[in-house]
Amino acid sequence: MYKAEDLKLKRIVAIKFLPKRLSVHGEERERFIHEAQAASALNHPNICVIHEIDEVNDESFIVMEYMDGVTLRGWIRKKAEQSEGYRKLGMKEAIDLAAQIAEGLEKAHEKGIIHRDVKSENIMVTTDGRAKIMDFGLAKLKGVSKLTKTGSTVGTVAYMSPEQVEGIETDHRTDIFSFGVVIYEMLTGHLPFRAEHEAAMIYEIINVKPQSLIDQHKGIELELNRIVMKCLEKDREERYQSMREVAVDFKRYKRDSEGRRIERKSDAREMMQPSEPISSGGPSKTRWLIIGLAAFGAIILIGFGIYLFIPKATSIDSIAVLPLSNTIADSSNEYLCDGFTESLINSLSKLPGVKLMSRSSVFRFKGKDIDPQKAGKDLGVGAVLTGRLTQHGDALMISVELVDVKDNSHIWGNQYERKLSDILALQSDISKEISNQLKITLTGDQQRALVEHPTENADAYKLYLQGLFYWNKRTKESFEKAIEYYQQAISKDPSYALAYAGLASVYAVQGSYFIIPIKESVEKARAMALKALQFDERLAEAHTVLAVLYENSEWKWEDAEREYKRAIDLNPNYATAHQWYGEFLCAMRRFDEGYAQQKRAIEIDPLSPVTYSSAAYGLMVQKRYDEAMKMAIKSLEMDPALPRSITVRGQISLLIGKPQEAIKDMRAIVALSDSSDEYVAYLGHVLGLTGNRAEATTLLRTLIKRQQSHYVDPSLIAIVYIGLGEKDQVFQWLDKAYEVRSNLLEYLLIDPLYDPIRSDPRFAALVKKIGLPQ
Hints:
The protein is an alpha+beta fold. Among the domains are: 2-65, Phosphorylase Kinase, domain 1 (2-Layer Sandwich), CATH 3.30.200; 70-135 and 142-251, Orthogonal Bundle (Transferase(Phosphotransferase), domain 1), CATH 1.10.510; 318-453, ABC-type transport auxiliary lipoprotein component (Rossmann fold); 675-774, no CATH class. The chain is 56% helix and 10% strand. The chain has 32 helices and 15 strands. Helix 11 crosses helix 16, helix 20 runs parallel beside helix 22 (575-587) and helix 22 packs antiparallel against helix 23.
């Protein structure tokens, strides 16, 4: 490396030549050229700037930014000498450099560039305290073939990732591991893996867990140790998955540690203040009074100036709580992350004047490398809450950050270390702090609602979260697991209203999914919903379940509407209540009111395919086919296999004269649903209407035979008979459906399935028996 002057631009530069012993080899020269091309594409304060690449007399060289400073290796040695080892090393400077290095690597990875040789010798520390990453000689552009020789290991072994030393194809996560090695070295003065020869070093990297930082340095906090050790995970799937995550965690830790340092200094200053009162002598007292008044006046004037000339912050009126990330990648811990996220959503939904995105929308971001600002814009909210959860035995560590979507600025953040038994109080603390940050004025009742605990039993709460986890999977098997966990939660706390409401929801949906007979579904769901309301009359979920039972099976329309309104009044952010109320209003042929509720559900749950599917059905029954088709397609863009949306699309195709497309959709949904009774019936109906009587009859016989092994709703058999045009059989089976209170009969007046029988007098008689408004 040479220091030189650029005679054209009059600037000091550094020149790096490819060693002559390598210049003759095309492979090394090609790698050298790629180093320059890779690095020259980067423009970041923490990456060394490449000015040009050239060749003279068959020697290749790079002209780069000249930096006055030392390598990070030299900086570490100097600090060690100044600090008597590393016991007294200034942590602030080390963390600042670590954050800078992370940001530089984040930028490189964004451009598709992997360094693959991150080590303390390849990082400069300038005289003004700036970290600069150098030597992208091993950088690998996406799509560029591997340039290293087969079987060779390139780079300093002590800093290499396990996949590098094993010769496995590397990706950006290899830089994350090497970064962890560098930071470990900065904080302790030595490398995490140490051995006398290369083979022993490789063994350590692959097999030996590095000693905890906390055991070596009393100044290392738990969170800093977690960040570094996660970088050093041997399994790259358990490592940080992006350098952005690392940079964000370092930035947050740096901010929080500086805040704690300021608090400690403030406390120290207060302790140093003299305890004796200032002398009350006349001249001295007057002088201090004048100085105090002058200072107070200056503060008032400055504050007034700030108020006048600094733009006022826009108030936040909508929030999305993104799924907490599980930092230890333990699948057994997943229910805790998901459940705590959902509990926070439910708690914050009680904030007046603030719109909360529903679970189904935010959980579309689960497991992804989330950019909070982009997620917030996709969801149409003013702020996004992100966080991560770590569990070690009975210890929980949760860090959260509230980000303003407008400019990606930090509104508030905190880190909590609690016992698992304190998780309920932690949820309340976070909700309360967010309320304070948003400057929301709460009434006494609202304050109590925000911080109250649905149970004081931590074991019951954990079991409830596990039930919630399986409930959200929405499969026959997961419903059984949900019931088991909810029942266990109730055994721990017999007054746990949310657990009863959870059971009510499962039983109600089992009926609507035709998993259990409607009568059994209604009896079980009602008993649990009423039990929930006995312990907490304000549970919107329980009121919604009662509304569905009144509507779908008891046909008590006024009672159903009362319960829907009560649920929405209790929780205006409950998208499911708006969606189901909208469907109810459509069944009552109050289409404008119904569509307004469905649009409200979409506003709260903009990334849920189910809300769009519901709206598509509401538009289809009004014969607004173009709009309905757009809604169905929007839903299928989010979930291409959503049964209801495929069914609605097929129905619309049939109604607008495209029978083959309708049959294609109905066949697809039968295959996707593993020949579910409901979709077999829909296919049989369409085949019958389009003249495919033989196949329709075969499907009809299949449904009738299935009654021997499980419950088959009589309405489904009636639907196939409608397609076949056999009206006597249709009404025979519709009478059976009436006897069991089939929930499909609610839609007699609006669903196109029943168009072929509407003129039959028996149809009007059935509608009257059910009590549908004419």
